[in-house]
Amino acid sequence: MNTFTNDEINLMCIYNTGTKDGLTDALTAMREYLEPEETELRDLTDSVLEKLEAISDEDFAKLELFPDFDE
Known about the structure:
This protein is mostly helical. The protein has four helices and no strands. Helix 1 (about 5-15) crosses helix 3 (about 40-55). The longest helix has 16 residues, at about 40-55. It starts with 5 loop residues before the first helix and ends in a 9-residue tail after the last helix.
C-alpha cells in the first residue's frame, strides 16, 4: 500500500465520505474550485488522488483517517 503523508491524511480527513470512490469524487470536485495560485493544495490533492487510485477498497478501509495536527 502507498504511504500517505501527514498532510495527505489531513486532507483526506476533511473530505472523507466513508468510501474511496466518495473521497475521490469529493477531492476531484474540490480541485475544480482551486485558484491558479493554489499550486500547493493542487499538488497535494493530485498526489492523494494518484495514491487513492493505486489502492484497493479493502486497503482504503484499513486507513485510519483521523487528523493529526501535532506533526
